[in-house]
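Notes from hallway chat w/ T.B., transcribed later so I don't forget. T.B. wanted the structure written out for a chain they're using in a teaching module, and asked if we could keep both sequence and structure tokens in one place. Agreed to drop them here.
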Amino acid sequence: MPKMKTKKSAAKRYSFTGTGKVKYKKQNLRHILTKKSSKRKRKLRHAGILSPDNVREIKKRLLPYG
């Protein structure tokens, strides 16, 4: 059986924490920042944690060796 290939686009977007949770960068912090409140931009800076249902899908299909 050949090795499974990692989806490179997913590998660039997601990373794993030490406990196996999946981290990702939140969207909407690239441009048109003047209309967004400081509070909203501050909250978008921090990494998001993916919900457990989606974690199984990511590990199985996109990042098999993650």
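Follow-up for T.B.: Strands lie at 14-16, 22-24, 48-49. Might be a good example for the class.
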